[in-house]
């Protein structure tokens, strides 16, 4: 499934995270004209990544 940027309006908690400057610049370019904040984009990107992990990537292994 493709990543789709959506407006952000949810309850939240603050966390501090450091990004490389080039990543910040790239994100800011992508969200121009979208109704989403930098934080909202990052949350959506993380959720997308989590939803698309394989079992091995999640640290679970279904082998017996």
Question: What does this protein look like?
Answer:
With 64 residues, the chain is mostly helical. It is 45% helix and 0% strand. It contains 3 helices and no strands. The mean pLDDT is 84.
Q: Which structural traits does this protein have?
A:
globular; 64 residues; single chain
Radius of gyration: 15 Å
Using the alpha-carbon principal axes, give the shape.
globular
Helix content: 40-55%
The oligomeric state is single chain
What is the strand and helix layout of this fold?
Blueprint: H1 21-31, H2 38-51, H3 55-58
Quick rundown:
The chain is 45% helix and 0% strand. The protein is an all-alpha fold.
């Amino acid at each position: 499934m493709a990543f789709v940027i959506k407006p952000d309006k949810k309850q939240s908690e603050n966390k501090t995270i450091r990004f490389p400057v080039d990543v910040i610049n790239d994100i800011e370019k992508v969200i121009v004209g979208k109704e989403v904040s930098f934080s909202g984009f990052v949350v959506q990107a993380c959720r997308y990544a989590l939803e698309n992990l394989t079992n091995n990537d999640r640290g679970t292994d279904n082998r017996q």
